[in-house]
Amino acid sequence: MKHKFRENLTGYLFISPWLIGFFVFTLYPFCQSFYLSLTRYNIIQDPKFIGLANYRMMLFQDDLFWKSLWVTIRFALVSVPVVLVTGVLLALLLNINVKGMTVFRTIFYLPSIVPAVGTTAIFMWILNPQVGLVNKILAWFGVQGPVWLNDPQWSMWSLVLMAMWGAGGSMVIYLAGLKDIPQYLYEAATLDGASSLTKTRVITLPMLSPVIFFNLVMGVISTFQYFTQAFMISNGSGGPEDSTLFYALYMFQRSWKYLDLGYGSAMAWVLFVIIVAITTVIFRTQRKWVHYGR
């Protein structure tokens, strides 16, 4: 018994740094945020318990809550499919065995490792209506470019363009998935007279579906937490005309601009429930289109 106890104690000692970190930096803040969502709290004063008042106000009285949620959903509906398709197409293109392909893979991957702040700063210059590169190119063809980031009709599409810029991250994962597809499947399809398009539709995409599923889930989760780019291009306001007022940005405003941390915590929990619900639906649909195994 003593020997077994010592073995167990040794094991617990080895994992104790992780356990302490988990309880202090994950579990405690997780539980504390739920408690704060039931209070009125502004840092200066002690939290005052108000029950579900924050949730009622959010769902039935706060128009900006619904607007920010709609902005986020609309962005997700556009950017997630665009980034997925872009990543798959790039992976298929860069999977061709030709000399120097490693260089092109590196070039397409590099933008994805640039920090979001740096990428946004670059695009703020590229899309600048006066000195930006895009409008200068359009002017060569006699086209008057829009004001992009300051136009409610174009600001969202500008952010979608930024999202496409980072498609190299998912491209690398797709490339790894493509390398894992057995070559004998393509050889058998060639013997049957299948075209390249048929091979892609019948072999490549089904075999790549687990990777597509993974990137879909991760893309949806990250999109609903979209913050940095929207904060930078609007200077934290969510403008123009709330067209870039994403959910996470509005949550930040309520928490730190207005010091309503109880309301911000309630928004965080609603976001958690929304993400869990959407990912659950996606997981339920995988039976119909995701193919595991060979």
Main traits of this protein?
globular; two-stranded antiparallel ribbon; mainly alpha; MetI-like fold; 294 residues
Summary, kept brief:
The protein is an all-alpha fold. Helix content is 73%, strand content 1%. The chain has a single domain, classed as MetI-like fold, CATH 1.10.3720.10.
Describe this structure in words.
This protein has 294 residues and is an all-alpha fold. It has a single domain (62-289), classed as Orthogonal Bundle (MetI-like fold). It has 13 helices and two strands; from the N terminus they run αββαααααααααααα. It has helices at residues 2-36, 53-60, 63-94, 101-113, 116-126, 133-140, 155-165, 168-179, 183-191, 196-223, 228-234, 247-257, 261-289, and strands at residues 39-40, 48-49. It has a two-stranded antiparallel ribbon. Strand 1 (39-40) and strand 2 (48-49) form a beta hairpin. Helix 8 (168-179) packs across helix 10 (196-223) and helix 12 packs antiparallel against helix 13. The longest helix has 35 residues, at 2-36. The two termini are 47 Å apart. The model has no long low-confidence stretch (mean pLDDT 92).
Main β-sheet, in a few words?
Answer: 2 strands, antiparallel
Helix content: over 70%
Q: How many helices? A: 13
CATH class: Mainly Alpha
What's the SSE pattern? Answer: HEEHHHHHHHHHHHH
Q: What is the third-level CATH name, the topology? A: MetI-like fold
Arrangement of strands in the largest sheet: 1-2
Which ranges are low-confidence, i.e. pLDDT below 50, for 5 or more consecutive residues? none
- How many structural units, i.e. domains? 1
Termini separation: 47 Å
| CATH architectural grouping | Orthogonal Bundle
How many strands appear in the DSSP assignment? Answer: 2
- The helix/strand class is mainly alpha
* CATH homology group: MetI-like
Strand content bin: under 5%
